[in-house]
TrEMBL record:
It comes from Halpernia frigidisoli. The lineage of its organism: Bacteria, Pseudomonadati, Bacteroidota, Flavobacteriia, Flavobacteriales. The keyword Nucleotide-binding does not apply. It holds the Pfam family CsgG. PANTHER family: CURLI PRODUCTION ASSEMBLY/TRANSPORT COMPONENT CSGG, CURLI PRODUCTION ASSEMBLY_TRANSPORT COMPONENT CSGG. One of its GO terms (cellular component) is outer membrane-bounded periplasmic space. Coiled coil: none annotated. Keywords: Cell membrane, Lipoprotein, Membrane, Palmitate, Signal. This is Curli production assembly/transport component CsgG. Residues 316-469 form the Outer membrane protein beta-barrel domain. Residues 1-27 form the signal peptide. InterPro entries: Beta-barrel_OMP (IPR027385), Curli_assmbl/transp-comp_CsgG (IPR005534), OMP/PagP_B-barrel (IPR011250).
Length: 485
């Protein structure tokens, strides 16, 4: 009984320590008053600020850049009428345009306020100049005419050559959820996570022709995590001990929207330079060329990137060789078959991403306890099909024809056979794969074990584990086409 209590105490201590280690915020909870600070920055805030200077700033107008999703915050209890997206996205876009130094944004979101204020200024100046008795004591018509001519007029408003349109077009919740938990004798812990996704479209429109010069599209995932631990134990017949600890960490929606908008401004600048809509300062040409090269790499990766954080591409080379350790069991006419070790080497040639031709040679031993024992060799030709060749992890199927014979006189005792099997392969790198498989060899005769009896031919059941090495240029790989700087 004492040993069990000690083990429970040790388990509770370990779980508590692990929980505290993973939740550093528990050591410094935000219980004190915090002063206001400058706004947070994102990784793309620094990137757009470090862009090379343009040849000439572009005057742009932003009338509205709004939330077009109509999405409300998800709620487990009742209806939540708060919007999921911040409503000041036009201000976020204008700040990003200013930070980039490539654009000169002008006020258009509240243009009516600006025009009203300018009208107030004009009216006030006219009335003040004509009727002020202190500064304008003369009442003659000639004097009034002179004063009206000296009234300072307002400078004209800037007009934009390009209008920026678009908005937040989607906010998808729970695109990925998951968790992990365990409990033992009332002591447990759990972890949960959720991913959302926000999508931004931004387009540049020429004010002279109405032509859409360029449209860019960016997205940003948001991660929400929670870690909890709890203890629920009866320490006595009438006493219950209960304790809870936990922390939740949510990525701010405002920062995710800000980063997505800044990324769209960055993409608009780079795409505009590529299409010669605007240009960089001539002395900064080499720097923008390197930025464009990196941008092109990102485009290729993004074309093969899935929302579940998987990158799909042709991974394996054109050729492959492999070594495998196997266990072999004969299915013949005798009882008490024994599983015996063996090995196999193979070579592969890929027809395309899904199909390859495999040639292999194997040596192994077959045995029935105290009855039959003999060493064999086999040569097989298989067609292999990979179900998910663009993933790191894929199931595969294979089948083909081959020969099996006694190792000491292989060519004198060849027996034809057919084989089929299935396996799993995980790519440690694009050049090295770990595989596990099962195979069944179907014999066309019944004398592999030296006895012809019954209606069924002799067969072999195999299980294997091995490594595949891939080499040779893969012409289907999109990443191999990325030019290095």
């Amino acid at each position: 009984m004492l040993t069990k209590k000690k083990s429970n105490q040790k388990l509770m201590t370990v779980l508590s320590f692990a929980m505290l280690q993973s939740c550093s915020a528990l050591f410094r909870p935000p219980t004190e008053k915090q002063n206001s600070t400058m706004g947070e920055i994102t990784p793309y805030t620094k990137i757009i600020k470090s862009l090379p200077d343009p040849k000439e700033k572009v005057v742009v107008a932003v009338y509205k850049f709004k939330d077009q999703t109509g999405q409300y915050k998800p709620s487990e209890n009742g209806t939540n009428w708060s919007t999921a997206i911040p409503q000041g996205t036009t201000s976020i876009l204008i700040k990003a345009l200013e930070d980039s130094k490539w654009f000169m944004p002008i006020e258009r979101e509240n243009i009516s306020d600006l025009l009203n204020e300018r009208q107030i200024i004009r009216t006030t100046r006219q009335e003040y100049s004509a009727s002020n008795p202190v500064l304008n004591p003369a009442n003659s018509s000639a004097s009034n005419t002179s004063q009206n001519n000296t009234i300072q007029s307002l400078p004209p408003l800037l007009y934009a050559g390009i209008i920026l349109e678009g908005g937040i077009v989607s906010y998808d919740t729970n695109i990925m959820t998951g968790g992990l938990g365990a409990r033992y004798f009332g002591i447990g812990g759990s972890s949960q996570y959720r991913q959302d996704n926000v999508t931004v479209y931004l387009r540049a429109v020429s004010t002279s022709t109405g032509k859409i010069l360029k449209t860019v599209y960016t997205s940003k995932t948001l991660l929400f995590q929670s870690v909890t631990g709890n203890l629920f134990r009866y320490v006595d017949t009438e006493r219950l001990l209960e304790a809870d600890i936990g922390i939740t960490k949510n990525e701010p929606v405002q920062l995710a929207v800000k980063e997505a908008i800044e990324k769209s401004v960055y993409s608009l600048i780079i795409e505009g330079v590529k299409d010669k809509i605007w240009d960089v300062e001539p002395s900064k040409k080499s720097k923008i060329d390197s930025i464009i090269a990196e941008y092109n790499k990102e485009e290729i990766i993004n074309d093969n990137f899935r929302i579940d954080n998987r990158i799909l591409d042709s991974r394996r080379g054109k050729f492959g060789i492999g070594v495998n350790a196997e266990s072999n069991t004969i299915k013949g006419d005798y009882n008490n078959a024994v599983m015996k070790p063996g090995y196999k080497i193979n070579a592969k040639y890929f027809i395309n991403d899904h199909f390859n031709i495999e040639l292999n040679f194997a040596k192994f031993e077959l045995e029935n306890t105290d009855i039959f024992k003999r060493k064999f060799s086999s040569t097989d030709l298989n067609l292999e099909f990979l179900l998910m060749p663009n993933d790191k992890f894929t199931p595969y199927l294979f089948g083909g024809l081959g020969y099996v014979g006694y190792s000491y006189s292989y060519f004198n005792h060849l027996k034809p056979k057919a084989q089929a099997g299935a396996g799993l392969e995980y790519l440690i790198t694009n050049y090295l794969g770990l595989q596990a498989y099962g195979e069944y060899d179907f014999g066309f005769n019944d004398d592999w074990d030296g006895l012809v009896a019954g209606k069924r031919d002799d067969n072999i059941l195999k299980f294997g584990l091995g490594l595949n090495f891939y080499f040779g240029k893969n012409n289907n790989s999109k990443f191999s086409k990325i030019k290095k700087n």
